[in-house]
């Protein structure tokens, strides 16, 4: 398969949480994506240009730049650790867009940590189009400080954003993990769309529970 590579300059880097940064980069002419799609990214220098990692676009397609929201794994010197040391003016290489998760209709978005990124793109687009109603977000994190774009998501979703924290007890949030009891409490009708994205284990556990409750497997969309 042929892959087109685009060298793009970083326009701006902003801090999102203690281990997540937002990168706005140049948008190549004619480049477009569907909310939820991703591309293979590498850093354009001799040491790192062949180390490709997938990241999801978190801006709207109509914006004049591209945006990634990237969590850093500081425990080893991988690509995310390097990305977090870059500055505006440095260059990335991006490639063709490919599908990860695509919106098919109102339902439940279930995310763990950086698994929110495809949903950021989808929820931002739905908000802009005035179509966010009837969508709910269940967002699992370790602590409140880990919640990516917390203020923005709670502003656009209101009561339809449910935060679940595994390592912090706080009156404002549900404590624990997304388990069967929680799903049954929150979800009235399992015959709807489910979009699940997060760590492998979380995705497979939640998928098993959703299938058990009769969610149709083609309505359970997975991050590969
Ligand atoms: C379709 C898709 C879209 C994605 N979109 C996003 C996104 O928008 N934003 C985002 O933040 N992430 C996203 N990810 C995840 C992202 O691709 C990974 O976080 C990234 O590839 C990690 O790269 P890395 O080189 O830093 O770590 P890698 O070296 O690739 O390691 C990945 C994992 O292994 C562990 N690991 C590997 N080697 C070591 C080591 N020596 N010591 C300790 N731990 C180790 C790391 O802790 C980490 O969890 C996406 C993934 C997919 C599949």
Put the structure in a nutshell.
By secondary structure, the protein is of the alpha/beta class.
Question: Could you explain how this protein is built, in words?
Answer:
This protein is an alpha/beta fold. It has two domains: 6-98, Translation factors (Elongation Factor Tu (Ef-tu), domain 3, Beta Barrel), CATH 2.40.30; 107-222, Nucleotide-binding domain of ferredoxin-NADP reductase (FNR) module (Rossmann fold, 3-Layer(aba) Sandwich), CATH 3.40.50. The chain is 20% helix and 32% strand. It is built from five helices and twelve strands. The strands form two sheets. The chain has a six-stranded antiparallel beta sheet. Strands 10-9-8-7-11-12 form a six-stranded parallel beta sheet. The protein starts with 5 loop residues before the first strand and ends with a strand. The model is unreliable at 217-224 (pLDDT under 50). It binds flavin-adenine dinucleotide (FAD). Flavin-adenine dinucleotide binds at residues 38, 53-56, 68-71, 73, 75-76, 78-81, 100, 114, 117, 223.
Average per-residue pLDDT, rounded, comes to 93
Order of helices and strands: EEEEEHEEHEHEEHEHE
Strand content: 25-35%
Distance between the termini: 19 Å
Shape: globular
Low-confidence stretches: 217-224
- Give the total of domains: 2
CATH superfamily of the largest domain: Nucleotide-binding domain of ferredoxin-NADP reductase (FNR) module
- The CATH topology of the largest domain turns out to be Rossmann fold
Ligand set: flavin-adenine dinucleotide
Q: Order of strands in the sheet with the most strands? A: 4-3-6-1-2-5
Q: So, CATH architecture of the largest domain?
A: 3-Layer(aba) Sandwich
Helix/strand structural class: alpha/beta
- Number of distinct beta strands: 12
**How would you sum up the major sheet?**
6 strands, antiparallel
Number of helices: 5
Helix content: 10-25%
